[in-house]
């Protein structure tokens, strides 16, 4: 992959900028990587380097310009192109936006907006922790006095959070003073889907198994083509509240828990962003997902309106 996979970056009138760390890290790493080619005829994929928060109107005009000024878009109706997006693209009657939505690879940040993520082609970037710990290896045979740990913003009203806060088997912190110790002393790290997940990689590296609270099936987990999330995380619905969550976690056997913990520790290295990319880190795993999509699917023109 490293020697043969090539990406061509268009020159666009809209300069790239983003204050979202995963986007800026991915963009900087990509433009300075050996995957870039200046010859579009040897490219496997084409990158449209627009800011992730650019308006849909501007995106539509840009795709129209690419179609008019370059021969590459119409070859696959955009299926071998990719772009970054904060909120995703909603369906539109504009042909250019429709092709971008249905065909092109959208890269966004986990978690994404419901309905704006197409699982068979889109990619979600692993979250970035602005204050990562200096991580040791996960302790072996660690005795964990807490069943679960939840980091909460301290403001959002949640009956689930209130119930967990009243249960001595769970630790709920809004301004953690000792994240590392709390994580090491918890079997499961509880995430409310749509909430803060920036600490996910660090928690997993310490052997804290993710327990994700969700109100719908999750289709945008980071690196879904690579990581076996079902074998290293627990997914629990919201209806049963804290009681259902606790029952599910307590019922997990010791053997199953140890397997999940081992998978989580191993997988954590693939979720880490580095200012200078390292083998098998988040940047290289995202590029690998792009490589998997190099054989494109073209939608017929009759589907366009």
Automatic annotation (TrEMBL):
GO terms for cellular component: Golgi membrane. Keywords: Glycosyltransferase, Golgi apparatus, Signal-anchor, Transferase, Transmembrane. Belongs to the glycosyltransferase 47 family. It is found in: Golgi apparatus membrane. GO terms for molecular function: glycosyltransferase activity. It comes from Ilex paraguariensis (yerba mate). The lineage of its organism: Eukaryota, Viridiplantae, Streptophyta, Embryophyta, Tracheophyta. It is a single-pass type II membrane protein. Residues 3-237 form the Exostosin GT47 domain. InterPro entries: Exostosin, Exostosin_GT47. Pfam families: Exostosin_GT47 (PF03016). This is Exostosin GT47 domain-containing protein.
């Amino acid at each position: 992959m490293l020697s043969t996979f090539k990406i061509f970056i268009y020159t666009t009138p809209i300069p790239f900028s983003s204050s979202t760390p995963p986007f800026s890290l991915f963009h900087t790493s990509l433009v300075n990587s050996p995957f870039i080619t200046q010859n579009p005829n040897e490219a496997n994929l084409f990158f449209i380097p627009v800011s992730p928060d650019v308006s849909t109107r501007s995106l539509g005009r840009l795709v129209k310009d690419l179609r008019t000024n370059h021969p590459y878009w119409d070859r696959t109706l955009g299926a071998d192109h990719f772009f970054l997006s904060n909120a995703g693209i909603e369906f539109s009657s504009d042909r250019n936006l429709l092709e971008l939505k249905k065909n092109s690879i959208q890269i966004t940040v986990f978690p994404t907006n419901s309905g704006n993520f197409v699982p068979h082609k889109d990619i979600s970037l692993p979250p970035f922790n602005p204050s990562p710990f200096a991580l040791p290896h996960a302790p072996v045979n660690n005795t964990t006095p807490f069943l679960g740990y939840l980091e909460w913003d301290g403001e959002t009203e949640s009956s689930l959070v209130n119930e967990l806060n009243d249960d001595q088997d769970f630790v709920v912190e809004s301004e953690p003073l000792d994240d590392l110790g709390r994580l090491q002393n918890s079997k499961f790290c509880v995430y409310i889907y749509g909430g803060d997940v920036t600490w996910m990689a660090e928690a997993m590296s310490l052997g804290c198994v993710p327990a994700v609270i969700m109100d719908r099936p999750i289709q945008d987990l980071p690196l879904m083509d690579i990581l076996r999330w079902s074998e290293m995380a627990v997914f629990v619905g919201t209806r049963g509240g804290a009681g259902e969550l606790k029952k599910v976690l307590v019922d997990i056997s010791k053997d199953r828990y140890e397997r999940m913990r081992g998978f989580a520790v191993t997988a954590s290295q693939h979720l880490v962003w580095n200012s200078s990319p390292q083998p098998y880190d988040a940047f290289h795993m995202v590029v690998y997902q792009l490589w998997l999509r190099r054989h494109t699917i073209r939608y017929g023109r009759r589907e366009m309106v």
